[in-house]
Amino acid sequence: MTQTRWHFHMKVYPILLLMILLFSSPLLSHAAVFHDSLGRYVMLCPLPMRIISLAPSITEMIYFLGLGDRLVGVTRFSYFPEEAKKKPKVGAYTDINVEKVITLNPDLVIGTADGNKRGDVEMLEEAGIPVYVVNPRRISQVLDTMERLGEICGVPDRAKRLVGYLRERVVRVVRAVEKKGRPRVLLLINVRPLMSVNRNTIHHDIIQLAGGWNMTGDQPITYPTLNMEEVIGKRPDVIIISSMKRGGEFERARKQWFQWPTLPAVRKGNVYLLDSDLIDRPAPRIVRGLEEMARLIHPEIEWYERQ
Questions:
Q1: Beta partners for 131?
Q2: Which residue from 7, 2, 43 is spatially nearest to 129, judged by alpha carbons?
Q3: Residue 122 above 80 pLDDT?
Q4: 304 in a domain, yes or no?
Q5: Domain boundary pick from 135, 162, 193
Q6: Which structural domain range is residue 214 located in?
């Protein structure tokens, strides 16, 4: 183990073990220990200056915290902000190139439990690389995660200030819709076949906070496939199609809904497209996604400045 990188994963008597280590080594007395979403203890010494992100959402978080210069590697599809495209790639977040990660000599790798393979995390640990795993599933958890990463990277005050502004925007949405009715919302994350989301997703949290009622929230499958008979029977008031880009195939999919004029959403013209990046990625832009979702569900409210 080198003097510039310390990583320790403790499963038995972690507090006692930590006390022994901290008092027995002058170097480790300057270490910090963090508890991640997998219940692991990750020790860092000194502050991480060479960071690798194992998911596009994490990449966005690091840039949001003003730490983009510390990123030495990212996964494919890390295209926001624009500067992230120039960073070395370490594979897809579901298929990490472990050898590439090791050659980039990071002092911290940040992974996600919802996507990264546990085996990849374990191989990086065996190579002596600290891996901190996050797993935000609600907007509140996304904000908490960013504050935690700010603490890990030595910028807690900056993180608290930046995240505080996002929290204010979330509160503004919730207050604006709290006395309104809850329209029945059908969110489609795929159009062939029709696929929606249940209550175990961050999308459900967004719909609820935006003042809607997720029509498929009670489905037993996380991403249920629907047929038109089900949709017609449940009569959504708002249909929102999560699209990777506006126009093209998704615009055609939106227009096709107007052949079903008996649906309340169609009759009222409440069939919309919403940029999938704003609601699929548990990253800072999720707050913008919440604002956009609220605007579509409750167009009668003029309550926020478009970011």
A1: 109
A2: 7
A3: yes
A4: no
A5: 135
A6: 179-297
Other C-beta atoms closer than 10 Å to the C-beta of 225 total 12
At 222, which CATH number?
3.40.50.1980
Q: What angle do CA 205, 247, 115 make, to 5 degrees?
A: 40
Same domain for 112 and 195, yes or no, is: no
Note the pLDDT tens digit of each residue in 221-254. Answer: 999 999 999 999 999 999 999 986 555 678 888 9
Number of domains in the chain: 2
Q: Could you report the per-residue pLDDT of 165-214, keeping only the tens digit for each?
A: 999 999 999 999 998 999 999 999 998 899 999 999 999 999 999 999 99
Whole-structure pTM value:
0.86
Please, which residues have CB within 8 angstroms of residue 121's CB and are 6 or more apart in sequence? 111, 131, 133
C-alpha distance from residue 124 to each of 35, 98, 105, 119, 265 (Å): 17, 7, 11, 9, 49
d(CA 58, CA 145): 10
Q: Quote the mean pLDDT of the chain.
A: 88
Question: Of the residues 135, 165, 187, which one is the last residue of a structural domain?
Answer: 135
Co-location of 93 and 196 in the same domain: no
pLDDT higher than 60, residue 1: no
